[in-house]
User: Fold Cupin domain protein from Marinobacterium stanieri.
Amino acid sequence: MEFLTDDAFMVLANPGVASTQLLSPHNSNSRRVTLTRVVVQPGHEQPRHSHPESEQIWIAVSGAGTLLLGDDKTLEFEAGQVVRFEDGDIHGFLNANDDPFIYISVTSPPIDFNYAYTTKNER
Assistant:
């Protein structure tokens, strides 16, 4: 068993986006999953990207915004909804609303997300 508290959570950030690594290769022996809490501030986005060898599930906790998908497609996404991206699916998120958008992301197999963020804060 592993029991983690907030002092074990690394926070990765880009302007307007903070990703708290709740369960990651940096604080866990899990070889099956990465779990993150992501906050996208109003007027900010996560650009379209993909994970060639991992699937990802997003659970919308609060707020609303727009999923940015492949072929320039979009889909509205709001609290209470869940979306799953298969390996290689293009995805991103735009928060054009007035409130922060918060979601939980489950990624399997695990990914070290340091490559995708410009700053990190190890607690």
User: Anything to note?
Assistant: The chain has one domain: 10-115. The first strand starts at residue 10 and ends at 14. The mean pLDDT is 96. The chain has no helices and eleven strands.
